Amino acid sequence: MTISNLWSCAVITPVGPGHEETYVSYCLPSIEHAISYGTGPFVRVEPIDVPDLQGNLGRSRARNLGVVEAVERGFDWIFFLDADDFLFESVFEDAASHLLEVDALWGLICEARFGDLTSARLRPNQVRTMDRLDELLGNDPFMTLQMGHFVRAEVAAAVPFDERMDTGEDFRYYRRVWSRYRCKKMERVFFLNVRGRHSTGPRSADGRMWREAVEMEVR
Fold first, then answer.
1. How many structural domains comprise the chain?
2. Assign residue 196 a region: left if phi > 0, alpha if psi is -120 to 50, beta otherwise?
3. d(CA 176, CA 157)
4. Domain containing residue 32
5. In this structure, what CATH number is given to the domain that contains residue 202?
6. Within 13 Å, how many C-alpha atoms sit on residue 72's CB side?
7. Where does the pLDDT of residue 216 fall: very low under 50, low under 70, confident under 90, or very high at 90 and above?
8. Residue 167 pLDDT > 90, yes or no?
């Protein structure tokens, strides 16, 4: 397939406890703005939110349900975006020239404090480009990847998130995708990671728990 506005993309967002207002007021408008700014190689881009307001599903199950819906609705690509994050307006156009070469595509880690988007900064000392599994496993996971990324829908369906995990499921997914498919991290910003407004609920976790789970996964 050539880049000629033939693809479609679903932006999948789990909406957990405490994130409903954040999604409706901030995250969803950023998706709509990016769509209006330019959809690049996609003739159709639509948000798919997966409500989990009691926290019973967990992020992994919610994302997997979103993938099932996206596949059933015929989407070719998926962009995973968390409910407290913002999509950059040029995300689709910035990714366009790279999507033919890969099965999954990440950008730079850019973060800001909740309530102050002017604080947005690239994470210092991060690994700025990658295209090999050993680069993912050989660097501090805090400096490599975050959730917001493009992935072919059939790849997301073939590599579901581990629903048994309440934290670290993101890195297990990264490892599996990078070990089986063509993956790349490029020097573009796709989304803004907004820190300080974490979801709550029975399956929430903190940074220390994430670090422990990921280090076990790397080993």
1. 1
2. left
3. 12
4. 7-218
5. 3.90.550.10
6. 7
7. confident
8. no
